[in-house]
Write a structure and sequence with these properties.
290 residues; alpha+beta; Multidrug-efflux Transporter 1 Regulator Bmrr, Chain A; 8-stranded antiparallel beta sheet; 8 strands
Amino acid sequence: MPPRDATVEDYRERINRVIFHIEAHLDEPLMLVTLAQIACFSPFHFHRIFAAFTGETLAGFIRRLRLERAAYGLLHLDAPVTEIALGAGYETHSAFTRAFVALFGLTPSAYRQRHEPFALRGAQALPLGAPTEEPLMSPEIRTIAPMSVLFVRRTGPYGQAAGEAFAALCQFAGPLGLLGPDTRFIGISHDDPHVTEPAKFRYDACLSVARAVTPEGEIGAKTIEGGKYAVFLHRGAFEGFQQTYDQIFRGWLPSTHERLREAPSFEVYLNSPDQVPAEDLRAEIWLPLE
C-alpha cells in the first residue's frame, strides 16, 4: 500500500487538474465523463470524490464560477443582464436571477446598482503538501454471494423516503413471516446528495429473503450483486451518513490499493430509531470493490 500522504497528494493533484480545466473552459459544456477522464477517476464515483475533497458539488462548483464571472461582468461591462445571463449558461433572465440571488442574496440589477464588488472565492486549488489530520476509517473487507431481496422504492428526501418505504415493505413482509432475527434491512440510495436535489432522490428499502416470494403491487424483487466489499461502521444518527461517506472518499480511498467497482453502495441497518436513541444507531456502509 502506498504511503497515505503521498496518495492523498496524488488525489489532490488530479482534482486540481479538473479545477484548472473548468476555470479555463467555463464557456464550454463541462461533462462529468470528460472531467472524470481528466482526473483519471471512474465517472461512477468521481462526483463523490470531488465533493469530499473540495466541499462543493461538481455542478455547484461550476455554477459558482460562472455566477462569479457574471457578477464581475455586471460591475465592469455595459452588457445587458440578459446577455450576461446567457454567458453564464442560463437561457432565461428569470433562471439567472434565481441562481444569482441564491448565491449573492441580491438580484443582478440590484448588484449592478450597488457598485461594490463582493469578495469572490474563485477557483481555489487544493493545497499540496498539506498534512492529512483526519482519522483514517478502517473497513472490513468481505466477500459475499449475490443476495436476494424484496424492495419498495420511494422518491424524496432520504429520511422521509426510507421511513415510508420500510413501512410499506414491512406491512407486506410481516404477515408472510419474513421478518426474523436473520433478516437484513438494507437501504440503497441511488442518488448522491452532492448532485441530485432532494425531491428527486431515489431510495430502495430492501430486506433479505431466504425463500422464494412472489412480489405484489409496489413490492419488487431483485438481487444485490455479490463480490468483494469494503464495509464501514457508521455510528450515530442516520442523517450523518453523508459526513461518513465524505470521510471514506477523502481519507480511506486515497490511502488504499483497493479500487471501487461501478455498482451502487448500500447500507445495512443494525438497529433502528424505534429501538435506540439517535446517538446509539449503528449501520454498515458497503462499498463495492473490484
